[in-house]
Write a structure and sequence with these properties.
The chain is built from five helices and no strands. It is mostly helical. Keywords: Membrane, Transmembrane, Transmembrane helix.
């Protein structure tokens, strides 16, 4: 129970990008593209933020279908994922100029 997070997910994405010809390589590249969008000059646009969130969640969603769900059943995975999704949604909904004004 709860054995999915042996290495940080960013390292898993980088390693899987080198696994040529697999479906996981496709999702790893998509995840890396989502991370690259975070640092682009277009990230202030709401649609780019939504696209970046979706691109970064797709590799995790693909892992949900590849391994048993019991592997994800522990707080060391669920809490950080919930915080990430929650904060990302807040940053999408609240305009950046409101955050900078405070």
């Amino acid at each position: 129970m709860g054995q999915m997070i042996g290495i940080p997910f960013i390292f898993w994405l980088i390693v899987e990008m080198a696994d040529f010809g697999s479906e996981r390589q496709f999702f790893a590249i998509i995840g890396i593209l989502g991370i690259v969008l975070l640092f682009s000059k277009w990230y202030s646009k709401r649609t780019v933020k939504i696209a970046s969130l979706i691109l970064m969640l797709l590799p995790i969603a693909s892992r949900f279908f590849e391994v048993p769900l019991e592997k994800f059943d522990y707080h060391g995975f669920q809490i950080p994922l919930s915080i990430y999704i929650g904060l990302s949604i807040i940053l999408i909904l609240v305009p950046a100029n409101k955050l900078n004004a405070q």
